[in-house]
Design brief:
With 180 residues, this protein is an alpha+beta fold. It has a domain of 92 residues: Roll (SH3 type barrels). Helix content is 29%, strand content 25%. It contains three helices and seven strands; from the N terminus they run H-H-H-E-E-E-E-E-E-E. The strands form two sheets. Strands 4-5-6-7 form a four-stranded antiparallel β-sheet, with no helix packed on it. Strand 6 and strand 7 form a beta hairpin. The termini are far apart. The model has no long low-confidence stretch (mean pLDDT 82).
């Protein structure tokens, strides 16, 4: 038993002793290479430029015109309308119709009715169905119904572009399929 323990110790110490004896010359070469490299290396750190001085801007609104004042915007739009070359304008004096209170994407065409004189479109909103004929208004952009077919209602809207000019835009409500 003592002999086997001694053999185990000997088997562990022999490789350690061999490794310790042969590592000395390799280590010397590595140290010499590192010293040479250190002496040849040139270290250069560029100077950092001075940061720019920050001077805070003081905004005093006393005596200045508020750029977000709604009255200023109304005055500018009124001035622009006077100089506008476009003769296209919605009739703001006429009485508004019931379907003009809803945006077009909230309206739903559910059918048509045909009589001898005219065709009517059936428009549903808020679980109520309205009859619409050519010349009626609907939507929030002064949309006037211009044509009614079995499958859709064509609408001519009058809207303001970014420059304040009134322009026409065509829209269409298509017949919605009912799910059963």
């Amino acid at each position: 038993m003592k002999r086997s323990i001694m053999l185990q110790w000997l088997s562990l110490l022999l490789p350690v002793g061999l490794l310790a004896g042969c590592g000395d010359s390799g280590e010397q070469e590595v140290r010499q290479w590192m010293n040479e490299t250190r002496s040849q290396a040139r270290i250069s750190v560029p100077k950092i430029t001075e940061p720019k001085k920050f001077t805070p801007f003081l905004y005093s609104q006393k005596g200045e015109i508020d750029p977000f004042d709604p009255i200023k915007l109304q005055v500018a739009l009124a001035r622009q309308q006077k100089t506008s070359s476009s003769k296209l304008r919605p009739n703001l004096e006429r009485r508004r119709e019931a379907l003009e209170a809803y945006p077009l994407d909230g309206l739903k065409m559910v059918g048509t009715l045909q009589s001898r004189e005219m065709r009517l479109a059936l428009i549903e909103v808020d679980k109520l169905v309205y009859q619409v004929k050519i010349g009626n208004y609907m939507g929030q952009n002064f949309g006037m119904v211009t044509r009614i077919t079995d499958n859709d209602v064509e609408i001519k809207e009058v809207i303001q572009d970014a420059g304040g000019e009134w322009i026409e835009r065509k829209a269409k409500l298509e017949l919605q399929e009912t799910k059963k």
